[in-house]
Amino acid sequence: MSRTLEPGLSLLTAAEIRVVVLPIGPMPKDTFEAYLSAFNAHRHVPLHATRCFHAGGPKSPFPHLALKSGAMHFRFMQADEARRRSRISDLHLHRQPLAVLGLVHCPLLEDLAAGHAEFERAAKQWPEALLSRCCAFEPSPSHLATPGLRALRELMLLPAEHLGAHLEVYMTEFAADMLAVIEDAVLNASVATVKLNTYADSGEFLGSSLAQLEEGLRKLNMNEEELKEKRRWGRLQKAKGDWALLAGSPRDAFEHYKSGMELSRAAGDAIWFGAAVEGLAHARVLEALIAARPAAAAAAVRPALAAAAAARKAAAAAAAEPVAAPAAGGGAAAEAATVGAAAVVTNAEATAAADQPLYTLGSCESGELPGPAAAAAAATASNAAAAPPSQAAATEAATQLPPSTTEPATPATATTSSSSSKPASSSAAAAAAAANLQHAPARLLSLSGLLSGSSGCSSASSASAAVASGWAGSCYSLSGPGAWGVLAAADLEGEVRELLAEARAWYRKKGGALALQIEQQLKLCRFVAGLHGPVAARLEASEAVGLIIESLGALPLQEDRLVALVEAGQLLGLVGCGRKRLLLLWTALEMYRAGGDKGPSEAGAMLALTLKSLQPPEMPRQQ
Q: pTM value?
């Protein structure tokens, strides 16, 4: 099964690495969906975190890689979706799966070695994948005693306890491995492997014999071998631009796309020239998000850092004064004050760790936590070992991330408390400082905070828009109101429109490439709706949908016609035309039914389409 049109494309999906997720062995559907949801929670991985596992080197093909503010983005796909391969994956590399991930539910699988062998067989369905990994969840002691377990290098065991933290570290390592194989692919890329007879070169895709006539005339005026050589080099540069986008380096992608455009123009390779111009638009949008991340993240952690500084001052003042032991029967307040003072003293290592920059992860040995996480973990372990039971429970609770509604104590409160000179007041100050240290800085010292932090400040206007729209808490995401606020502040609409118009003009030179033009219209309308809202984008979206419906008959593949109809309906829902959206979705469903006999996978696709028509449409700033 293959198609040309892809559902759900936007100007940012070119930066997403597709990962096929396979259930290995017996696994209930709800369990598989729960694991998949857990992975999706960590699908945006900051590049600075990967340095603990992949330090890079002087031969990196991405000299402009934004290690402090860039990120890698993953799109997890189930097997049925991944089997619907794109016919133009040679033109757009992000449309092919680049990794395969197997999930094993150990309580229902006794033999891990057999499960790993099953995963290896299943992964061969996607030979284009550069990376394959297998995760075994909830292993028992018998699983850990499996003979030859260490030889299964692609297998990772994940215990049920603290699964979120384990997955965050695992996804960081996974992203580092993915970055390494992408770098190898770029370094080892050769023009000898570049294809010239792809589906994007066929008359079926181009939709006109005029393109073949122009090609013959060009061959008469230029040496054929020279023409082929320039085409190969141009396509190679375009592919390197795609790799750079997937690695999280839009600046490097921009340079490769520009080189590819020059070579493709000289060779008359119109489709690849247009695709490279479209890649420039993708790179510009991604670069705008990256430029705003450092300031947004710094603004998010600034209150917690201020609270940590106040806590350190209070801890120093409390450590300089003797803490009186509570009298017998002194009540819960005295006991709490004593426990709080002890917590401040024993958390000195964690306090010192908060001084380190969030993006400085240091060098890591196998099994060590990066940078401040190691100090925080050591401090927590020593506290739990030396503290009485009541304090140990408090220490364990302090290491958990606080609820999002919990507000950190203000620095003024801690400073005022620490200024008192009475022993009882010192104990109270110590308790307040301990509360500050154990709640607000816990976000920084936890694994989650360390692996999603950032530093520096680059774009004040974009940062203010990001903080105002709440993007700072999840500034590595490619979607949501915060990301759209940043893009609106960057004022990219005019440049994006010009680039897409130029790409469309080159597509038309080669006979049309109708599928690419339809995708481009959908991308642009989604972009405008995200920037300005549904009302401002409604007229343009309605006109685009009208053009798409008129051109359906010219698409050669029925699945492309269905995808175009469904995406047009989704676009109408995005701009507030709910009834028209529903009408188009049901029209697509009737077209699907009229297509002949369907197998199990096609029946599943029909069910998914039916359910989509019953769901509410997307919101423009949630896409």
A: 0.74
